[in-house]
Amino acid sequence: MSKTSLPQTWHVPQRTAGMNPREVQEVLVQQVKPTAKDRAEKKKTRRVDGVRSTLYNPITEKPPAFYLPELVSQYAFVPSPEQLHFMEELCVTKEESKLYEEETQEQADTQKWHDLRAQRLSSIEFKEVCTRGADFESLAARQLKKTVHTVAMRHGIKTGEEAAAAYADSVECNVFPAGIVINPSRPHLVSSPDGRVYDPSEVNPWGLLEIKCPLKDSIFELKYLKCVNVSYRLKTTHSYYYQVMGQLLLTGCQWVDFYAYCKTDFHCERLRFEAEFCSEVKMKLDQNYFEYLLPKLLQVVA
């Protein structure tokens, strides 16, 4: 007799030990309360295996190392012996830069990420250094206190992985982790993009991802966006624009997706490397760093 000719048996209980029949209304469903050990093990950390789109999966291997272009300075500077020693302590090779990037892909969850940012200018600070005309003392002092987290920063860290997954689904691509980037030709500068993106439709398929998770309901409340021809754009005068251009300058990538993830909507914009803008930024960074900020940093360290 074939199996299909036999009566079905799915209604017959397979496990009866310790279980008595009862009405559905009497069944109580509860979540298992985690122990203190379980809660400690479930502490959130930044993913280092990337975020994969469920819609589109063009590549699965690890991304290549950053190009790290040679950034020639147009600013003439003769350092003092103390300044020269300070700069030598910041210098890295390309091999070391690659290793540091791989070791810090959990970003703020790793102590090395904080150590490498100390005494270096982060790309989020590029606008402030480029446009500041005085009071470099307070900026120098702040360079040694980069571990302070505001409410907005904590929200961004907490929501970052969720935002990366939403971005991956919206643009149908994979997101790979990125660590801290130090260009050997500019060891006093540092960048830390939120991820790397592969887009086969681009001439240079590997780009960057910068995520912002503001404490806002909608992108209409974001002051760093402006409406241009019925669509929103990141203001080129805002520090976030300087930040992403700095990321492209130091890494050698040609484009970055700027993704603002709000509670009810999001903004995604692809920004491309602007050589003229970055050249001016590089010149101002060198001038203000070596003339004003470096002497103040030495005073703070001393």
TrEMBL record:
It comes from the Eukaryota. Coiled coil: none annotated. GO terms for biological process: DNA repair. Pfam families: YqaJ. InterPro entries: NF-kappa-B_Signaling_Reg (IPR051703), PDDEXK-like_dom_sf (IPR011604), Restrct_endonuc-II-like (IPR011335), YqaJ_viral_recombinase (IPR019080). Residues 112-254 form the YqaJ viral recombinase domain. This is YqaJ viral recombinase domain-containing protein. It comes from Stylophora pistillata.
